[in-house]
Amino acid sequence: MRGARIAAVVGAAAGLAAFFAICFGSLGTTALAAPAAPVDKSVQVGLGPCRFFAGLPPAGWTEEGFDDRAWTGPAPGPFAPRQPPLPTPPPAATFFDLVPGAPLLLRGRFSVPDALHLHVLELRIAYADGFIAWVNGREIARRGVAPSGSAGTLPHGPEIEHILVPVPSTALPSLRPDGNLLAVAVFAYPGRNTVVPTAPAAFIDLAGASGVRIVRGPYLSTPVDDKKGAGVRVSWDTDLPASGTVTLERIDEKTDGGGARPEPPRHIVVAAGSTTQAVKIEGLTRGAAYRYTVEVDAGGDRAISGPWRLETLPAPPHPLRFAVYGDMRYPGHLAHRAIVEALAREAPAVVFNTGDLTDVGSEEANWQKYFEVTAPMGAISAVVPALGNHDADHRGTGAAKTWKLFGVPASGPPGWTSLDLGGVHFVILSTNEMRDPSQRAWLADDLARARHHHARAIFAFCHEGPWAHGLHGGSSEMVRDYAPLLAAAHVDVLFSGHDHIYERGTGATPAGKLTYVVTGGGGAPLYNPRCQAASGPPPGDVPGPLPPCPPSVAVLTKAYHYILVEVAPDGISLCPRRPDGTAVEACVHLPAHR
Q1: Phi, psi (rounded to 5 degrees) for 400
Q2: CA dihedral (473, 475, 480, 484) positive or negative
Q3: Per-residue pLDDT tens digits for 76-95
Q4: CA separation for the pair 101, 146 (Å, rounded)
Q5: Which of 3.60.21.10, 3.30.1440.10, 3.30.70.3420, 1.20.1070.10 is the CATH number of 320-590?
Q6: Is the C-alpha dihedral spanning 460, 461, 462, 464 positive or negative?
Q7: Average of pLDDT values for 217-232?
Q8: How many beta carbons lie within 10 A of that of residue 435, not counting itself?
Q9: Average pLDDT of the chain to the nearest whole number
Q10: Collapsed DSSP state (helix, strand, coil) of residue 481
Q11: pLDDT tens, residue by residue, 510-552
Q12: What are the two backbone dihedrals, phi and then psi, of residue 369, each rounded to the nearest 5 degrees?
């Protein structure tokens, strides 16, 4: 799996094509999450073709006065090592002769006709596998480079990273209308294999803005339901340090008792200027709707997003509705976007994710793409993730980053926790830590407390489930160590992902039966089922006949989908739907255990 992901960057013909498809297909600025068009603050920045050189960096090559006329070019890029003859012509690119173990050096001039009003310079760069960038001889950014500055520290994926540099700042005091120099050194990771050669590659572009913008969010996370009422966290990022104000007002005066209770508008102020902000909103009425806006201020320069609508989950015995989906990582952004649009129309208060939100959870470029795609859903539905194996990558460092982005209060190491919302208990498990005995001990105690407090339903979420009949199959550790605990506590449904399929069944454990659903159709390439269920929809477009599934499998098919779940006094309904709203299978009704 890891080698296949690396191959999407550079090397084999298919990987090289994918790399350039990402580059050329993503030249636009990251979409702002706003229902109305934001004020256009773009400033023209014109980057000319680059001269390039592969080899040991000459002295002074990042300085404006360096003579690069002996270098190759100028050429527009993207830049990649020259390939052997390929069966099909590669996409348009600028090829260079590889010097093993040496970086690729790029020098290009750029203009900013309205330099006086430019306050943010945006470097858009896809790279393999690390880089250092300079403007007019000053370093403005570096990513994934060894301390010696001679090699990439890890393989880097194909997503474009957007690096925002304030102007003026210590890194970049000013820019001229013409003749500015961008210099970039690109370093390969030396640990690549023979299929994916160790070679630097890059796409670069520049853009600009005249003032502060909300470049990520607002997005909702961390839903709560306690003695103070309902609550949620609102987060956003800006390209310049800014204070912020969240304005919230009730738009539906119905209460759980059926009467009216006026609520004055709220103004939650974050006075400290920062590029990353989060506001915790508490004491909201359960089962109510609110309108909110986010306004940021960078020294009198303002930007606004909204108005957005959010709803809180109702208290028992009112029906509680939420959504579940998973596995939307690269290269499935188009399919993921279609599911996001469908979920934005459904507008559930909470969306649970079964993992692999991104391709590599430690890479900022991957999260920038995730939040760009999910913007219309994230602004109105709180997202609660279970960590996938890709989310924890590289080498586990992505887990803490993922957990922090969504503000999930951890009950153990990043990856496992539980929530009580609307009288329903939700358990989040980390299958990256499935061998950790402390997670199993915590789960047993957590489920015992949920039963003691008479939760009206219990749902569990994880990435690698105990049962699945796709490419990966089920996890024996989950079968042995976790499924019996969940069955003994009468968990209503265990949702998992990892296999990019839709599967529903009933697994047998020593402690009883457990209903499970594999929901891995969030956008990543679909997998072929390994068997055919006796009922339900056909398995999909698969080569050749399939053997019959075990009787425990009720439905198995390959389809992009999400699931709407409703908890009502008479039981639980599961409604799996495709992005166009059609049913993957008819809604399934499960009697409540409690």
Answers
A1: -65, -40
A2: negative
A3: 999 999 877 766 666 788 99
A4: 13
A5: 3.60.21.10
A6: positive
A7: 95
A8: 10
A9: 90
A10: helix
A11: 999 999 999 999 999 999 999 999 988 999 888 889 999 999 9
A12: -70, -40
Q: What is the CATH number of domain 214-311?
A: 2.60.40.10
Q: Answer whether 184's CB lies under 8 Å from 109's CB.
A: no
Distance of alpha carbon 188 from alpha carbon 138, whole angstroms: 22
Question: Among 9, 11, 219, 5, which Cα is nearest to 98's?
Answer: 11
Q: Taking CA 86 as the corner, what is the angle to CA 82 and CA 91, rounded to the nearest 5 degrees?
A: 70
Using CA atoms of 422, 225, 378, 404 in order, give the dihedral in degrees to the nearest 10: -130
Q: Are 182 and 62 in contact (CB under 8 A)?
A: no
Query: What is the rounded CA–CA span in Å between residue 378 and residue 234?
Result: 10
How is 351-372 classified by DSSP, letter by letter? EEE-S--SS-TT-HHHHHHHHH
490/459 Cα distance (integer angstroms): 10
57 Ramachandran zone, left/alpha/beta (phi>0; psi -120 to 50)? beta
What superfamily would CATH give domain 2-209? Galactose-binding domain-like (2.60.120.260)
220 close to 381: Cβ distance less than 8 angstroms: yes
Measure the CA dihedral 232/236/242/248, to 10°: -40
> Among 197-206, 217-226, 253-262, 391-400, which range has the highest average pLDDT?
217-226
- Could you tell me which of 515, 492, 507, 505 has the C-alpha nearest to residue 555? 505
Smallest CA-to-CA distance from 491 within 537, 444, 531, 524 is with 444
**pTM to 2 decimal places:** 0.92
Nearest residue to 588 via CA among 533, 515, 531: 515
pLDDT of residue 86: 64
Q: Tell me the residue type at 87.
A: P
Read off the tokens for 238.
């800006």
DSSP-derived 3-state class of residue 483? helix
Residue 370 and residue 358 in contact, taking contact as beta carbons nearer than 8 Å? yes
Per-position b or e across 571-581, b if 16+ CB within 10 A of its CB: ebbbbbbbbee
Dig out the tokens for 217 from the structure.
């969010």
Residue type present at position 291: R
Name the residue ranges covered by the structural domains of the chain. Answer: 2-209, 214-311, 320-590
Torsion, CA 61, CA 64, CA 66, CA 68, rounded to 10: 80
> Which tokens belong to 36?
């109305």
CA distance 578 to 561: 4
What tokens appear for 361 in the block? 């959870």
pLDDT at 3 over 50: no
CA 537 remoteness from chain centre: 30
Contact (Cβ atoms closer than 8 angstroms) between residue 362 and residue 394: yes
DSSP code of residue 329: -
Q: How confident is the model at residue 260 (pLDDT cuts 50, 70, 90)?
A: low
Above 80 in pLDDT, residue 409?
Answer: no
- Identify whether the C-beta of residue 75 lies closer than 8 Å to the C-beta of residue 22: no
